[in-house]
């Protein structure tokens, strides 16, 4: 083997080592408030009044702002994160194998491959948020929003989905 062939093999080994030593995190990564909104929507929650007898929820009725008092509200689980993984994990694994094959052929880099997979995973999670329809919004929520789209209000949650590449914990 020539020196160039050894350099080529060393480069491939380094890229595969980088690929295997990293992981991709997908979700709301940069906004604590939207991260809480994501978790509450994904896992569900019961919100109770604290230090007061009732939650006071504003809504529009016949063009007039009015209020409803409730001791608590239940937000059902809308497992968009798990649904994204269930529906797309096989595709991500296929992409990873394809990217490793490219690396073994000397094409691209580990970081390029990881970024490509991360971008695709973000788009798939955003798509799941848009597609999510059941369980429906409560009638009061529909009255406030003007539509029944459980994970979309302003689009801020969907738009906050991002990815990052971090070292795997060993």
Task: Please provide a written account of the structure.
The protein has six helices and six strands; from the N terminus they run αβαββββααααβ. 53% of the residues lie in helices and 21% in strands. The strands form three sheets. A two-stranded antiparallel sheet has the order 1-6. The chain has helices at 3-21, 32-43, 80-104, 110-131, 139-145, 156-160, and strands spanning 22-28, 45-48, 55-61, 64-70, 72-75, 161-167. It has 170 residues and is of the alpha+beta class.
How would the blueprint of this fold be written?
Blueprint: H1 3-21, E1 22-28, H2 32-43, E2 45-48, E3 55-61, E4 64-70, E5 72-75, H3 80-104, H4 110-131, H5 139-145, H6 156-160, E6 161-167
Helix pairs in contact: 1-4, 3-4
């Amino acid at each position: 083997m020539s020196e160039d062939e050894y350099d080529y093999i060393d480069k491939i080994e380094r890229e595969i080592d980088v690929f295997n030593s990293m992981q991709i995190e997908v979700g709301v990564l940069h906004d604590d408030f939207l991260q809480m909104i994501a978790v509450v929507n994904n896992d569900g929650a019961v919100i109770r009044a604290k230090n007061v007898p009732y939650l006071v929820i504003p809504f529009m009725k016949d063009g007039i702002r009015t209020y409803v008092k409730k001791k608590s509200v239940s937000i059902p689980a809308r497992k968009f994160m798990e649904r994204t993984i269930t529906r797309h994990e096989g595709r991500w694994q296929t992409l990873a194998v394809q990217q490793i094959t490219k690396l073994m052929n000397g094409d691209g880099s580990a970081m390029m491959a990881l970024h490509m997979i991360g971008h695709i995973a973000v788009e798939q999670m955003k798509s799941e948020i848009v597609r999510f329809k059941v369980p429906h919004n409560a009638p009061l929520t529909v009255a406030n929003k003007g539509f029944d789209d459980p994970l979309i209000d302003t689009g801020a949650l969907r738009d906050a989905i991002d990815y990052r590449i971090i070292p795997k914990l060993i």
